[in-house]
Amino acid sequence: MSPLILIDGSSWLYRAYHALPRLTAPDGRATGAVLGMGNMLKKLLRDYAPDQLAVIFDPRGKTFRHQRYPEYKANRPPIPEELAEQFEPICRLVDLLGLPRLQIDGVEADDVIATLARQGVEEGREILVVSGDKDLAQIVTEQVKMLDTMKGSLFDPAAIKAKYAVDPVQIVDWLALMGDSSDNVPGVPSVGAKTAAKWLNLFGDLDSIIEHADEIKGKVGEKLRAHLDQLALSRELVTVRQDVPISIGLDDLRVRAIDTAGLSAFCTEFGFSRWLDELNAQQPGSLPQAQQVERMELQVDTVLSQAELAQLRSKLEECTVFAVDTETDSLDPQQARLVGISFACGKEQAWYLPVGHDYLGAPAQLTLDEVRDVLGDVLADTQRAKITQHGKYDMHILARHGLPLHGVQFDTMLESYVLNATVTRHDMDSLALHYLGKKTISFKDVAGSGRKQLSFNQIDLEVASEYAAEDAAITFALHETLHHALEQENCLLKVYQEIEQPLIEVLQSIEANGVLIDRKLLLSASQEFAERMSRMEQQAHAIAGSEFNLNSPSQLKDILFDQLQLPVVRKTPKGAPSTAEDVLQELAGQHALPQLILDWRALSKLRSTYTEKLPKNINPGTGRVHTSYHQAVAATGRLSSAEPNLQNIPVRNQDGRRIRQAFVAPVGTHIAALDYSQIELRLMAHFSGDPGLIEAFRNNQDIHSRTASEVFEVPLEQIQSEHRRAAKAINFGLIYGISAFGLAKNLNIGRGEAQAHMDRFFQRYPGVAQYMESCKQAAREQGYVETLYGRRLYLPDIKDRNQGRRQSAERIAINAPLQGTAADIIKLAMIGIHQDY
Asked: What is the pTM of this model?
């Protein structure tokens, strides 16, 4: 397996900026740092072919170190304006390359890197930290190495010792003694790298140096003794934290496929011609990727009078199908104001109907009432087919303005998604470039960017008309290309027509309806949680015999292992006792304090994520919370919920269930909860045809108990809870392609024992093993796998020479038909319920 690569993005950013001469894009923007960092990223990807990687940037504003020491980094000059302007395109580039990107408020990149490295070490991974920052040398071990790409140097502990004359475990004390003028970290005046290393090699560590300070002679000894009181602070400031809260796990750091269409547009925008040539030479996607990039030639008509509006209606009535798109003053579908509507009946001509441009000097426009009188029935006609790009948003906007949009038979975002979910992003600009070879006018081209960006109602009408009309014409052209491709694959056309297209109306209705939240219940629960947390904190202090910060791993470490003398379960890469959640769970049976800390942390998370946050998501106009369900995100067909995410409301404990109680129905109505029981395991039985699994489901047996009986060779009536728990981990783990190592960790058993469990499972259920192998073989032969309904997931890495990428593709090949079919079934059920009720 390739190493987990953690890139110090902020360090790279500065190095790239200073390494290259000033370069500019066609529009004059500086591009040196973008090009330099992009070249470094591309080389790293070529050299290591990682399957997991993260690019980590420092946050904007102050961090926890500033809270501890307000003068921290006080002497640093401001970031050069030319460099600051390149940060946003660098982030775009990282995303287009398919690389996970992290930037956590209040936490420096070094701390995020150290935390992820610790997690990787605990999972047995090799870690490669990519940075030239000497601060990160403190986390180097035999398992964690550091790469300085600028100098081509790879550092293990021996190399760190050779470079700095101290071991990695001494780096913190070494930095504390020297101080850091760039970060304004106080050290001992006149003590440089050599003196600090000399003392550490003589005495061992900083504490011993302080203890023997009187033995150090000369003026440097005097300065040491004069500044002893600030060394603790210096050490605290230069110590990288390995326990910062991070909302994602290592599984979320998988390298994704490059967004070739988006990257092509990016290269064109910034004038990176060599990169563009390389992209054009690469393997195309499921449809031939357009090689020539050009602008669309288009006749644009702006509709400002009643006569022009009547003409537009006549044109639309002549069309068997037309494209429609809205322009608004925000992206929130529940609150955005309609600014204009564009239409196209073909690729050569389009119309823009403005209704809300209100900048100083804007020409008179038709009112919404006038538009409703003339076009309302055309837009609402279910028999007149419309083409949209992300039409659910347009349906929300038009419905809220009294212009309901029906008859959306074609949506180019979903046509692209069904055709190939992974070959490109599904936004209009990416699709136009990939499939049509058209470089569209970007929103930034007309509205600007950053703090000075205009909302669409402020944009000059002539400029706005060209932009909006192009959207409609591009949408029409995309539909012609994409729908023709779907028609060549009957199974994909069926997925679009019977699942994705009917679901648009279902999701729009659900989102518009929203969910009623009992604000008082949440606020009451939040207050109660806060009071309980306070009591738990007092109880923890009483148990410990002193006050400490329950959220501070370093203070907790002192309490648990120094004061209470609890056994050290596991150490961090630096050799300090770990206070990770699984460690506390193991210690909970030996002392009351670890369980109390776990309970306090769980309550804190519920409060910050739900009881405090959800009331702020209530729409002031409707009094409800409106999420957005995204159809074209997950490659397997699953829906995702965002802003806010309502798919992860907790349910497994009383506090979580109380939060769910805040989701209420109006008087006289009820909320119905519908779920499929173990749907993916049932699908495994169907796909594999395994007699044992089929028999278990047909006899309504508890599938986890049945598996436990087979794997542990124990009669069903003698199955214990620990047997069932292990069997459940095996059942669900195999669906997701879990390894013996992963199962061992989940069950807290040895790897050999975990492998034995898996071997017995496949002996008892041979059909499952045959199914898994057939999935991999089908993927290798045809390049994709399918759901029961014909949805495809392409797997370009299935024959990759890199073992990590290939094995990841094989795991997806096994899981995608199950997960995708489950998603299809649930979508069909949603459509059926919507149509019946």
From this structure: 0.67
